[in-house]
Amino acid sequence: MHIATALLFTIGILGAADIFIFHTIKGRLTQRTECRKEVVIHVLRGFVYAAQFVVIPNYRLTGGWFWALALLFVVDVIIAVTDVWEEPKSRAKQGGLSSAEYLMHIVLSVLVGAMLREVIAQTWGDWSLPTAITERDTFNSISFVMAFGSATVAVCEALALLTSRPRPIHVRVRLDASVKEVWEFTQDHHRHPEWDHRFSHIEMLEEVIKTGTLMKYTKRIGPFLICGMGRYKLHRLMKQSTFEFWSDQRLSLIRRGVGLWLYKELPDGRCEFSTSYTYEVRWGFVGRIIDLAFRPLFQKYTEASFRRLAREHFAAPDATVLGVAGRLPERFA
């Protein structure tokens, strides 16, 4: 494994330079909300590299353990492909990747391919041997230092994500209906769960909806029933509803949040309906980790609700629903 180890160490050194120069100094990826997905990918890759630094130079995995090694490389390939897929969207506001970073990625890809070929050549047939983890004759302590460094960078990037302010959720749609029609339908709390996937039931605690009105809401997720409360902070007829919401239920990831609905009349008489909201999570550090995956899903969930609203209630199956780019909502052309 001497050649594979040398290639791995070279990849590690160049990868560290890539992170420091292009991700941290120039790109400031952990500080840009539009780059959050890319940073999550980099965090996962950091832990995969840490495992490779420990295993490849120091241990031979045979029998059943061979497939664990194969899985490690499969995960590495999936992460690499996902990173390539995400980068154009993540770096769009920065004008894409620089020529120098492209060159770095090409060199790293060639080295990774060469290392993978060498590992396959050295381990081919090991699945047929007895299941065991055997220490190699030349134990390499430097690899553990590099593994520690890779894992440390991944942890630091993860902490930067968890302590940064998450981006709000923005969704908007243009409907072939008047503001009055959209307002009356979307403000009907009895029919709200028909189109909004986020709620199973809404109950107003006052007959007239106005600033200060309280409501109860529930959402059933499998066998679990999530309960919460909401209050209208500002209610301007056919213009805007601003609200706050919270849940005292420990089962709920969302502790409290704020949001608004906006109704805008377009020059042709149609209505542009939009929402923006954000929230705080409970469960401390664990909750913030879960929210890294939950918030993008909630963004998509809300977009799906707006598509459902347009398709099923305003006869607009092809309506364009816009989401979010960075911290700002996307704009209609």
Main features:
single chain; 333 residues; alpha+beta; Alpha-D-Glucose-1,6-Bisphosphate, Chain A, domain 4; eight-stranded antiparallel beta sheet; two-stranded antiparallel ribbon; 12 strands; elongated
Task: Give the SSE layout.
Layout: H1 2-26, H2 36-58, E1 59-62, H3 64-90, H4 99-123, E2 132-135, H5 141-163, E3 169-175, H6 179-186, H7 192-195, E4 201-204, E5 214-221, E6 224-236, E7 240-246, E8 254-265, E9 271-281, H8 284-313, E10 321-322, E11 324-325, E12 328-329
Antiparallel strand pairs: 1-2, 3-9, 3-10, 4-5, 5-6, 6-7, 7-8, 8-9, 11-12
Helix pairs in contact: 1-2, 1-4, 2-3, 2-5, 5-8
Keywords: Membrane, Transmembrane, Transmembrane helix
Protein name: SRPBCC family protein
Transmembrane segments: 6-27, 39-59, 65-82, 102-121, 141-162
Can you walk through the features of this model?
It is elongated, with a radius of gyration of 25 Å. The protein contains 8 helices and 12 strands. It has 2 domains: 2-162; 169-329, Alpha-D-Glucose-1,6-Bisphosphate, Chain A, domain 4, CATH 3.30.530. By secondary structure, it is an alpha+beta fold. The N and C termini lie far apart (55 Å). It has helices at 2-26, 36-58, 64-90, 99-123, 141-163, 179-186, 192-195, 284-313; strands at residues 59-62, 132-135, 169-175, 201-204, 214-221, 224-236, 240-246, 254-265, 271-281, 321-322, 324-325, 328-329.
